[in-house]
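Tip: read the tokens left to right.
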């Protein structure tokens, strides 16, 4: 270390490690909701906060996107959908190669039984509608390490 160095040897080594670490892959949020308005508003909100999104209107579309090469790091799903509800979708995900995927459930009319079943399926959170946008954003950013 010379008189002109700003960093200590330990600081320089730490900086080199950070600079050489591989960049974390960008992770997207998959929004699954059969209501197009809700789906589009959530996607627009997250996009405004620089979070990439994919949208699906049902279980079939969601599973197809999860089987794709897209870097999905979190799924946000509605509970009440047709023909299969969000819990059915989560069971399918938990039986797939994406079993460890963090999942958040949203619902406007959930009962205690729904919440208990969701927790048994190891969901990250169960949010009641109307959704609190700052809370949702914070939860997503923490989950994706943004």
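Filled-in amino acids:
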């Amino acid at each position: 270390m010379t008189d002109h160095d700003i960093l200590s040897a330990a600081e320089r080594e730490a900086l080199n490690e950070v600079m050489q670490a591989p960049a974390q892959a960008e992770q997207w949020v998959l929004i699954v909701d059969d209501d197009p308005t809700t789906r589009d508003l959530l996607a627009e909100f997250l996009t405004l906060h620089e979070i990439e999104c994919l949208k699906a209107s049902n279980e079939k579309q969601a599973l197809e996107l999860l089987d794709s090469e897209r870097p999905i790091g979190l799924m946000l799903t509605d509970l009440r959908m047709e023909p299969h509800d969000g819990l059915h979708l989560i069971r399918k995900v938990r039986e797939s190669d994406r079993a460890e995927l963090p999942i958040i459930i949203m619902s406007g009319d959930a009962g205690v039984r729904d919440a208990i079943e969701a927790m048994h399926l190891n969901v990250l959170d169960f949010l009641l509608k109307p959704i609190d946008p700052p809370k949702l954003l914070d939860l997503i950013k923490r989950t994706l390490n943004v």
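The longest helix spans residues 36-48. The CA atoms of residues 127 and 135 lie 10 Å apart.
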